[in-house]
Task: structure prediction
Amino acid sequence: MSRCIRLVDLFCGAGGCTKGYENAGIEVVAGVDNKFKNYIHPEKFIKIDALKFLDDMILRPEVYTDIDVVHLSPPCQAYSFAAAKHRNLGKCYPDLINDARERERVLETGKYYVIENVKEAPLIDPVILCGTMFGCKLIRHRKFESNIPLSVDLKCNHKGSVRNGDFITMAGHGGDGSGKLKDWQKASGITWMTKEEMAQAIPPAYTEYIGKQIIKHLCRN
Result:
């Protein structure tokens, strides 16, 4: 592939994944979310339900011929640790991962794809990344599923504890980690988000690592 690889970031939030892909050298043509958030590139933000965007890609493939990769970060509440407590209280969350896959929306686009979610999510043959793999003082495990072969040659380094201040978490529902915005920014490499947005984000280092593998695979094929 001679031209720049182009990607659309679905369920983009404020753009943590977008920033990582751009750091890898991938052009992110749009960020898609049904809620207006502080997306890193406001001029590229499309406010629409991400699954409806996928439907449009299927129905009008001629409009999206220049998109090579679809990234999806569906809301993780159905599988997160905090949600387990809420499920015990009878609260349910939408399972958008299976919604996207069962309707075969991603595969029907004919594009390469990456799905990112929490460690407990039922992804297929995923790789797992953690902030400590990149020298960050952040324990935040995330799975990545793709129809592009992915591998991880890094190891977690959990020597120490969150409670003692060796690491932090960016938990949306509490936890033992530091609650200071500057600590979250330093640990994650994210500077433009609010704390609420950061609680739902991943460090750009994760998708930079994934993005470099995408480039290597697509440039070889």
Q: What stands out?
A: The two ends are 7 Å apart (CA to CA).
